[in-house]
Design a protein that fits this description.
Number of helices of chain A: 11
Strand content of chain A: under 5%
Largest sheet of chain B: 6 strands, mixed
Distance between the termini of chain A: 24 Å
Helix content of chain A: over 70%
Bound molecules: adenosine-5'-diphosphate, magnesium ion
Number of domains of chain A: 1
Radius of gyration of chain A: 24 Å
CATH topology of the largest domain in chain B: Rossmann fold
Structural class of chain B: alpha+beta
Number of helices of chain B: 8
Order of helices and strands of chain A: HHHHHHHHHHH
Helix content of chain B: 10-25%
CATH superfamily of chain A: MetI-like
Strand order of the largest sheet of chain B: 6-7-8-3-9-10
Order of helices and strands of chain B: EEEHEEEHHHEHEHEEHHEEEEEEEEEE
Oligomer: heterodimer
Number of domains of chain B: 3
Shape of chain B: elongated
């Protein structure tokens, strides 16, 4: 082994192997680009008012302008941002703690690991329904609260679904996204973190100093990337707020869906325009996540 | 600066015993090497000294004080690992200053100490570099600098050069030696490379299978190996069983005069290093010795390794004597003082 362990080496190795792989993937890539790119192009056309079926053939930015000049749009934008930022921050914070605990438990408690990964496999919709049964005014928690005498009637139970603060939506997202972020963090801790922590200990860093100056900076790129992905998902997801959200203000994805499926065909371009604006935010988050990941890999942090 | 004593150390992972009955004493300011093949338990011992692993039994004393119960951050010991393990999110100077910062040194003090150590490790001008923009040798020097800057009582190095190419390795050995002799930090240097251990260490300990086989000066281990296994680890060959009686070792090769103290006729093993055997090309040059025929050769640059068949026994010789051809008749001379007869028969060949 005459090779220094540097990220540079790993990069060149990946680089040389990359070309043939891209060739192999070409057919699949072509289909994806065609379907996705084509769909996007059609979407843009429709958002610009090109709807031959409804007799609209003139391209116009009016739909975008109408969407953006509707005060309700900003209310929707606000609630969407609120829900995704709060659930992402909560999930990220809990995940850091969970990853540290799981790393400490190491291989000793495999079942813990397994239980932890379960939410990954459950669709959002199912979790949303479960949350509904659990938190609804006549739901399980309300009944239990009555049964143990905490409240007199289920009606006294605080409103946690279709509520002002979107508690139900946020809980669903937090529960669902914690395992995703935690597992990404856990991989970093196992691959890079433990060795660096040992180095830190011999360099006289206290437990808090190791967390503050080694663990957090090591986790940061993965935490940032995973959080951005979760943010992008929650910002663009439709089913959970549709089920657990209030009817006004709606989140952006619900609004886009409502407009798009409106019987009034004229509302359709506005639905798509909203969808494209959502896509813009989501794409920006994903691009930043990618940049974070790449920068970390260049520094030799395994993500 | 401090002394390091390891007393009856035993270490195990789960239920597997990895190190047992390990004893070693390193004096103040000494450079000691722990030598052993891969998997012998070298890293395990270093981690125990650093405090990253708790020994099952035994004591670790620094300056005579047992440190067993102290966590790594409270021990006056710093470890340099096999991989540089630099903090990827810090530049070179920040990496080096890390320990000082954790200790609470002010920024002015850190700056002075870092610039001094950058010079010492020949990294001047690289303080602002990102660590992933450094070569492997530079990275390992930063790791060394990061440890040295704390001026620990004991410095541990775990095969710090094994990832570097041969030329660089030689350069780094010289650098480490010159720094060590300047700073006089008590150092325990781990390596699997016997020539590296011989050249770097003032004291040398050989670890085989988790047990200390021999400790002493490099000359002790090289010239006076405790048993055939130690001899073999240092490139020895030619082990013969026989009986020592009255200054003569009687074995299958014949009666070889030796300078060892006279034995009592019990079966013992003797050895002679391949380079200590003198090979002459014809009887005219020098009478006596053992007649043999060249059966195999291997050119090794400064010398040629040759296998000589004497009767039915093969003897391995390392010689500078010109070119040998297969089947050539040669004579071998065994200088009595170069034959080592092991204390008691341990050879289980
Ligand atoms: N974390 C561990 N768990 C269990 N066994 C280990 C662990 N680390 C090392 N070992 C075993 O302990 C022995 C000594 O390992 P090590 O100290 O790393 O050897 P060396 O550094 O001399 O190559 C090896 O047999 C190795 O497989
Ligand atoms: Mg090792």
């Amino acid at each position: 082994m005459d090779r220094a362990e540097t990220g540079v080496d790993a990069r060149t190795r990946r680089g040389t192997g990359g070309m043939p792989l891209a060739m192999l993937l070409l057919p699949a890539l072509a289909v994806t680009v065609l379907l996705f790119g084509g769909g996007l192009a059609l979407g843009v056309l429709q958002a610009l008012g090109y709807l031959p079926g409804a007799g609209l053939t003139r391209l116009t930015g009016a739909h975008f302008i109408r969407v953006l000049s509707d005060p309700d749009f900003f209310l929707s934008f606000g609630i969407t941002l609120y829900v995704s930022v709060v659930s992402t921050l909560l999930a990220a914070g809990i995940s850091v703690i969970a990853a540290l605990v799981l790393d400490r438990l190491a291989g000793q408690y495999r079942p813990v690991h397994f239980i932890f990964q379960l939410p990954l496999t459950v669709p959002h919709l199912v979790i949303a329904v479960a949350v509904m049964f659990l938190l609804a005014p006549a739901g399980l928690l309300a009944r239990i609260a009555v049964a143990v005498g905490l409240i007199q009637t289920p009606a006294e139970f605080p409103l946690l679904v279709n509520d002002r603060w979107s508690v139900g939506i946020i809980l669903t997202y937090v529960w669902k996204e914690i395992p995703f972020i935690t597992l990404m963090l856990l991989a970093v801790l196992r691959n890079t973190g433990r060795d660096l922590i040992d180095v830190g200990r011999t360099l006289k860093a206290s437990a808090w100093q190791r967390f503050r100056h080694i663990t957090l900076p090591t986790l940061f790129p993965a935490l940032g990337a995973a959080s951005l992905i979760v943010f992008a998902y929650t910002f663009g997801a439709f089913e959970v707020p549709y089920l657990l959200g209030r009817t006004h203000p709606m989140t952006l994805p619900v609004r886009a869906y409502k407009d798009y499926s409106d019987i009034d065909l004229m509302a359709r371009p506005e639905g798509i325009a909203t969808g494209l604006l959502i896509a813009l935010v989501v794409a920006a988050a994903v691009v930043i996540a990618q940049a974070l990941t790449r920068a970390a890999r260049r520094r030799g942090i395994v993500i | 600066m401090g002394s390091l004593v390891l007393k009856d150390l035993a270490i195990h992972y789960d239920r597997q015993v990895v190190v047992e009955d390990f004893n070693l004493a390193i004096g103040e300011g000494e450079m000691a090497a722990l030598l052993g093949p891969s998997g012998a338990g070298k890293t395990t011992i270093l981690k125990a000294v650093a405090g990253l692993l708790a020994p099952t039994r035994g004591d670790i004393l620094i300056d005579g004080r047992a440190v067993n119960t102290l966590p790594p951050e409270k021990r006056d010991v710093v470890m340099v690992f096999q991989k540089p393990l630099l903090f990827p999110f810090m530049n070179v100077a920040q990496n080096i200053a890390f320990g000082l910062k954790m200790r609470g040194d002010g920024s002015e003090r850190r700056r002075t100490a870092v610039s001094r150590i950058l010079e010492l490790t020949r990294l001047e001008g690289l303080g602002g570099r990102k660590v992933h923009a450094l070569s492997g040798g530079q990275q390992q020097r930063v790791a060394l600098a990061r440890a040295l800057v704390l001026e620990p009582a004991v410095l541990l190095m775990d095969e710090p050069l094994s990832n570097l190419d041969a030329n660089l390795r030689q350069e780094m050995r010289e650098l480490i030696l010159s720094i060590q002799s300047e700073l006089k930090i008590t150092t325990l240097f781990v390596t699997h490379d016997q020539s590296e251990a011989l050249m770097m260490a003032q004291r040398l300990a050989l670890l085989l299978g988790g047990r200390l086989r021999q400790a002493g000066t490099p000359q002790d281990l090289f010239h006076r190996p405790a048993d055939p296994e130690v001899a073999r680890f240092f490139g020895g060959g030619n082990f013969f069983k026989g009986r020592l009686q009255g200054g003569v070792f009687e074995c299958a090769l014949g009666r070889l005069p030796v300078s060892a103290a006279s034995g009592n006729g019990h079966v013992r093993t003797a050895t002679i290093r391949p380079e200590d055997i003198q090979l002459t090309l014809d009887a005219a040059g020098r009478p006596g010795g053992l007649a043999g025929r060249v059966v195999r050769t291997r050119f090794e640059g400064t010398a040629t390794r040759a296998w000589i068949e004497c009767d039915v026994h093969e003897v391995m010789v390392l010689t500078a004597a010109g070119e040998l051809t297969l089947g050539q008749e040669v004579r071998l001379h065994f200088p009595p003082e170069k034959i080592r007869v092991f204390p008691e028969d341990k050879a289980s060949e």
